[in-house]
TrEMBL record:
This is Histone deacetylase domain-containing protein. GO terms for cellular component: cytoplasm; histone deacetylase complex. Residues 64-343 form the Histone deacetylase domain. The lineage of its organism: Eukaryota, Sar, Stramenopiles, Ochrophyta, Bolidophyceae. It holds the Pfam family Hist_deacetyl. It comes from Triparma retinervis. One of its GO terms (biological process) is epigenetic regulation of gene expression.
Amino acid sequence: MLPSRSNLKVSRRTGFVADERFYWHHAGFITAGCDIATFNPTDGEFIQPNSGSQGYFENESTKRRMASLIDVCGLMEKLDTSTVKKRAAMKEELMLIHGRDYIDKVEDMSRRNGGDAGDFAFFGPGSYEIAALAVGCCVEAVNSVLDKVLDNAYVLCRPPGHHAERDKGMGFCLFNNIAIAAEHAIKVRGVKRVAIVDWDVHHGNGTQQAFFERSDVMFISIHQDNLYPPSSGSVNEIGAGEGEGFNVNIPLPPGCGDGAYKRTMEAVVLPSLRKFDPELILVSCGFDAGFQDPLGCQMVTSLGFSQMAKDVISFNLDIPIVFCHEGGYSPEHVPYCGLRVLEELCGLEKSNVKFYDDGLDYGYQPCQTWQEDVLQRVRELHGL
Ligand SMILES: [Zn+2]
């Protein structure tokens, strides 16, 4: 049963940016090594290649379903879907982070049949324009919160961005949406300190690379240890030169759930933010640390993501915040996680709203016995 929409009360002006064209980006086929340009299932000659939009882990379904849930439950009516200007980033904006040759290469391939922008960054015809639109929307969302037209914003951008390095697409990412948005804030808008919090289950290597020697951007990444890219994101990567101490990696072991992530926020992320005193916070919001995700081995529920969002937002309500969507590959779970985060962003009054039974994620109950937070449970039981 749908909740009564008139019951929904929010306390903040939250921008929500989605675009049909984001869903049209094609990231390849599920068969390993299958090049989208040639549809040549090199490594998968014995396995049936998938096709269509469901082809690869990174497909439009999770994003479309997240937007659908927000719409159908009525929350969309309480969000601002028109203030943030939807436009493609100009080449000069892409060049804030990426090399001209790389940008031209992606544009050229996109005009033909697409291909691989580097390492697991397959794309089809027309993806250059879609990726540029994703960047442009993140940049404009930053403009809107800096202008104080909105309190905060969520950009459901696709393709994702945090793996994209200066001259190389990686891990489904073509252009680094959040890094370009951060650099825009500094170079164009004169912001002095930008904090980027990245809780995608994979390490945000591209964002780290962009600001590794910079003290005006603090990059804080919570990720599963040594997942993707391999050997990236160790605790010892703390920045270099002027940037020493401004790169904070928190590689967690597999199996961490809400408790571990909550503790990580309290023990490392929030103290780091306090020390840095940012003027703008950007969040690389991946949902692939979710317990149903096919590409991660963490156990976070939608409530865990909700808690993290709450922590970052309530850190200082005067600081503008933009969430940029990253990974998350469970079409069943991502919508709930996204809804929870949007609830926190817009300050939904929850006392009289019940979007789904028991506040639990779909499919979560059978998994409760796998639960992860053993130490906390032991401490509770023994009063420690
Ligand atoms: Zn990811």
